[in-house]
Design a protein that fits this description.
The termini are far apart. Helix content is about 45%, strand content about 15%. α6 runs antiparallel to α7, α17 packs parallel to α20 and α23 runs antiparallel to α25. By secondary structure, the protein is an alpha+beta fold. It is elongated. The protein folds into four domains: about 170 residues, no CATH class; about 120 residues, no CATH class; about 325 residues, Rossmann fold (3-Layer(aba) Sandwich); about 60 residues, Orthogonal Bundle (Arc Repressor Mutant, subunit A), CATH 1.10.10.10.
Length: about 725
């Protein structure tokens, strides 16, 4: 009989490996990539029990961190050539533990300080010496191609402790290196000249590349290309291409697509020393002094390299403090899984747009289901900001595609762009009090709201945004002129309005005035900005039709049922507020402490700002942090939600990103909409002009009557105007 039991590698085996002295980390589902930032720290230490459990129920693969903590290294043979495999087996000692993924095998040995190294010959046969700082996927994880990793031996790592693994003598590793030196053809490099010096440099760089893992992170991969380009120009492409081919990440489009990428590495400021720095870290011993600059110079160059890479990758560098983009781009819980799907389903690689897209999907799903102990709900207002044509609309469009696989109630909660405050109220009522409003080019939308020609109903939409944001834990009462109101007004208990806007930065920040922060309107919004003008093609792109979120939807539907049952049970965590049952999500002690500490830090920063303009957005930061931690809550195997320290850690990273965006863009905002109006009045009316009050108000017809009255009183107080009495008539005179 076929066994249809679902295996959750991380849930079932993480603690078992830890007990047997192997340090493990969660990997993305059906992937080889680590699921958390700074994962390499677990090559030196073991993950604590609380964090291990926090990754449960997410279908994570499981990876073994090699090196010091696990006292283990591995030899990974990447080949299907039986003759080649036989040669390797004649060199390396027999290991009692071997595993297999798509092809070849991986053998495990005792770690004694061996360096990592990668080899590949002209036939595509490769070997990776995986040591400290590297990781390898463990059975029963699922390979990206769909098959499961399996043990080739009766003994597994669960049957043997690291100290009992065999040792690989140094001479055997040298034999492997010699085997490749004999079998490997020289890298096909077209040198820019025939001079021996140039060939010698290329040979040395080619040798150094053998000590750098071509499967490194994307930024390091680009940096290696920049370093080669700076030294050899276009002729260096063949070095970079040959090295990149050794990685399973090598793009399907091949060298043609890669050459276009290489051509973009011009005048970056990164030198060949960066390449040698990585090679030395991998065990390379340079023949020249390229890779060994003085310590002070090395640190300066490292800072310069970080700035250049940040500019190239579209992530501006802040000197104090540095932004933790790894934490920001690795949200935990269901949010992280939805984010992974959005990233893969977008033909352009734009994680800064994928993140708010995933946030809005989760926010709508959790609406009227979950709240925090502090009564924070999931009504978030987000804006994706970036250059025109950079992929904002592509990312936002995935929200509809995702919910097309969900029950129809979610599609009904997708609200149309309102033309009046009454229209906004009516659409939210029709959606059951919760809804997602998506506004393409929100900068233009805000300009319409503030236009002097806007009707009073249109101009009032912004005010309703503010009210809905504040009433999520209470009851909203509509204005009396809503046509759905059979009485003088209608009430919406726990309204959950979620807004997702997109805008080019020139438009959104030009329309924002400092008054928008002072009066609290824009303090409620979260900004996610990408500086990338031309987005890179996503090499991991899978069209949504070929990658439907079936498993995610099944999980969401299971959670929906469990939460619904709990909300209407006698469970103490469920609460009844204004007729809407909402489940209160508990928070761990460590997460609560982290949240409290962050709140104190924000208050200290507000005091230090001495009521400066940044005080206004910081006034809402702690509230944002609570909402975001709720979005990033994690689920146990029994589908119990909990806000963990990882949830809060991500929420803090998102809040800090938002504050950086606002601080950096303050200079693009005009002083005040009111100040602008006053300046226009003074420009419109020349000095010495004498007019009646009636003519004054007619001249300033573009300003609403109430504001005209306030401006006139202010101008009289300032002495820019004065009253002149002539008989029984009274005139205004511009001084």
């Amino acid at each position: 009989m076929e066994n249809n039991a679902v295996i959750l590698p991380w849930d079932e085996f993480a603690f078992k490996y830890q007990v047997n002295k192997y340090s493990v980390i969660p990997l993305a589902p059906r992937d080889k990539m680590p699921r958390l930032p700074n994962w390499s720290q677990y090559c030196d230490m073991f993950m604590d029990a609380e964090r291990v459990k926090s990754f449960y129920n997410n279908n994570h693969n499981i990876g073994l961190c090699l090196g010091k903590a696990s006292k283990t290294f591995a030899i990974d043979v990447d080949s299907e050539d039986e003759a080649f495999i036989k040669k390797i087996r004649q060199i390396i000692p027999v290991s009692p533990v071997e595993k297999k993924g798509a092809k070849g095998f991986t053998a495990f040995y005792r770690y004694e300080g061996q360096p990592s190294h990668s080899y590949k010959d002209e036939h595509g046969n490769g070997i990776d010496i995986l040591a400290h700082g590297r990781q390898t996927v463990l059975p029963p994880s699922i390979h990206p191609k769909g098959m499961a990793y399996v043990w080739l031996t009766k003994t597994t790592l669960l049957d043997i402790v690291p100290e009992k693994l065999p040792v690989v003598e140094e001479f055997r590793l040298k034999q492997i290196a010699e085997l490749f030196k004999k079998a490997e053809k020289p890298i096909n490099v077209r040198a820019p000249t025939k001079q021996d010096a140039a060939r010698s440099k290329m040979d040395e760089v080619a040798d150094a590349l053998n000590y750098i893992d071509p499967s490194c992170g994307y930024e390091q991969w680009c940096e290696i290309g920049m370093a080669i380009s700076s030294e050899f120009g276009d002729a260096g492409f063949y070095l970079w291409n040959a090295w990149s081919e050794r990685s399973p990440k090598y793009p399907k489009a091949g060298s043609i697509e890669l050459f276009k990428k290489f051509k973009s590495f011009k005048s970056t400021g990164i030198t060949i020393s960066s390449l040698f720095h990585y090679a030395i870290c991998g065990g390379y011993k340079p023949n020249t002094g390229w890779g060994d600059p003085p310590e002070e110079e090395s640190q300066e160059e490292l800072k310069a390299t970080q700035r250049v890479l940040a500019a190239f990758m579209g992530t501006p560098v802040d000197e104090e403090p540095q932004e933790d983009t790894d934490a920001l781009m690795n949200p935990p819980g269901l949010l992280g899984q939805v984010y992974d799907w959005v990233v893969r389903s977008n033909p352009l690689y734009q994680p800064m747009y994928s993140l708010p897209t995933a946030m809005n999907i989760i926010a709508l799903f959790y609406a009227h289901k979950l709240k925090t102990e502090s009564d924070a709900h999931t009504n978030v207002y987000t804006i994706a900001v970036g250059p025109s044509g950079s992929g904002k609309t592509l990312a936002a469009g995935l929200i509809n595609k995702f919910f097309s696989y969900m029950p129809n109630i979610y599609m009904k909660a997708m609200l149309g762009e309102p033309k009046s405050d009454a229209g906004l109220v009516d659409s939210l009522v029709s959606a059951g009090g919760k809804g997602l409003l998506m506004i393409d080019e929100i900068g233009h939308f805000l300009r319409l709201l503030k236009s002097s020609s806007a009707s009073v109903y249109t101009a009032s939409i912004g005010g309703e945004f503010t009210k809905f944001f504040s009433k999520a834990g209470d009851t909203y009462t509509s204005p009396a002129y809503s046509h759905n109101a059979k009485k003088s007004s209608i009430q919406i208990p726990n309204p959950c309005l979620i807004i997702y806007g997109q805008s080019v930065k020139e438009r959104i920040f030009a329309e924002l005035k400092r008054d928008d922060f002072i009066d609290g309107f824009f303090n409620r919004w979260l900004i996610f900005e990408s500086e990338t003008k031309i987005a890179l093609n996503n090499t991991d792109y899978i069209p949504p039709k070929e990658n439907p979120p079936v498993k995610l939807v099944e999980m969401l539907q299971s959670i929906d049922k469990v939460v619904t049952d709990k909300k209407f049970s006698t469970n103490k965590a469920a609460s009844l507020t204004g007729g809407i049952h909402i489940l209160t999500v508990p928070i761990t002690a460590s997460a609560k402490q982290m949240l409290s500490d962050y709140g104190k830090k924000i208050n200290d920063r507000r005091v230090a700002s001495d009521h400066g303009l940044m005080d206004y957005p910081m006034s809402r930061t702690f509230e944002h942090c609570n909402k975001l931690a709720l979005l990033a809550c994690e689920w146990s195997g029994d589908l119990e939600p909990v806000i963990t320290s990882q949830s809060v850690e991500w929420a803090i990273a998102a809040c800090e990103h938002n504050l950086r965006q606002i601080k950096a863009k303050m200079e693009l905002m005009t002083e005040s909409l009111y100040d602008e109006q006053v300046k226009k009045v003074l420009d419109r009316i020349p000095k010495g002009r004498r007019m009646s009050s009636h003519i004054f108000h007619k001249t300033l017809g573009w300003i609403n009557p109430r504001e005209r009255k306030v401006i006139l009183e202010d101008l009289l107080t300032r002495g820019d105007f004065e009253w002149e009495v002539n008989g029984d008539k009274k005139y205004l005179v511009r001084k």
